[in-house]
Amino acid sequence: GKYRVVSTKPMPGTRWINLLIEQDCRVEICTQKKTILSVEDIIALIGDKCDGVIGQLTEDWGETLFAALSRAGGTAFSNMAVGYNNVDVNAANKYGVAVGNTPGVLTETTAELAASLSLAAARRIVEADEFMRAGLYDGWLPHLFVGNLLKGQTVGVIGAGRIGSAYARMMVEGFKMNLIYYDLYQATRLEKFVTGYGQFLKANGEQPVTWRRAATMDEVLQEADVISLHPVLDKTTYHLINKERLATMKKEAILVNCSRGPVIDEVALVEHLKQNPMFRVGLDVFEDERYMKPGLADMKNAIVVPHIASASKWTREGMATLAALNVLGKIKGYPVWGDPNRVEPFLNENAPPPA
Ligand code: GLV
Ligand code: GLV
């Protein structure tokens, strides 16, 4: 192979590797056993000659790594993730490295996990499962694990981009929930969908579903029964959900986070869960991914899973393939992937234009 492409992790499927090999690349996959590579580990991996790297969201892609990649002759980096808060895109641009991410292929898979967490929280699935396994079930009782009926309640979506809109669609259509959403951009297609579905229900003599685009995020927090967070993580969304905002939510609300951990002040959340036993959360992400804040693991009203929202076979193989195509596109100078200095060079039909 003429080009050397490094992947910091083994990735699912073989298509991504074959694509690179077919296009004159030598692919090197890091075999280190440790889960999260340090900046030093990655510098060693990049070595003296490296044309492109496929990296992971657990890695800190800043000035140091882009300088190292540039010194090794590299021009391409792709995160195997849609989120890229771990990547300093300005630093990459400074060193002439194009940055890609992997949107699109994980939209439905991620929205399905958010929906799963919503249902699991509403119906207390995890608590009930633990109860069964503990041998505590002694026969049916009228008040055993009574939860929330979603039908007719309001689902709130904060960040109605690709994933948020897909989640909203699932909850509205699947459970006949009304929608309130907050986003800087109008989710036109989502609005049309809910309107059409409402008309369908009405024509069938059923209560139609409704939607509303909230003027402020606080309206969503105050009015919704189930709230799912789908913003990008940046300075403006850090601790978006804090002590004060939690206090404005319904006492029996359900909060789901499949975006990024730091969007929620997790210490404040643990305190809120303690004070409000009927308030429930489903969390896929954590402020400090590997360490839940003290007390969270003890809360019966919290469901916690280890950042698996995009973890379906089809999606993970798709993410790996897109990451390879991003790197390849830049190295080979294919025009089809658009401006390589822009994150989300393709599959971004719903995304707002870059600022
Ligand atoms: C996963 O969290 C992703 O951003 O793809
Ligand atoms: C519950 O199992 C019922 O039959 O109502």
Automatic annotation (TrEMBL):
> What EC number(s) does its UniProt record assign?
1.1.1.29
Start and end of every D-isomer specific 2-hydroxyacid dehydrogenase catalytic domain? 22-334
- Under which pathway is this protein filed? Photosynthesis; photorespiration; 3-phospho-D-glycerate from glycine: step 3/4
**Assigned keywords, A-Z:** Glycolate pathway, NAD, Oxidoreductase, Peroxisome, Photorespiration
Top EC category: oxidoreductase
Q: Boundaries of each D-isomer specific 2-hydroxyacid dehydrogenase NAD-binding domain copy? A: 117-309
In its keyword annotation, does this UniProt entry include Oxidoreductase? yes
Location within or outside the cell: Peroxisome
**Principal cellular location given in the protein's record:** other
Its GO CC terms are: cytosol; peroxisome
In the record, the note on similarity to other proteins reads: Belongs to the D-isomer specific 2-hydroxyacid dehydrogenase family.
**Name this protein carries in UniProt:** glycerate dehydrogenase
**The organism of origin for this protein:** Rubroshorea leprosula
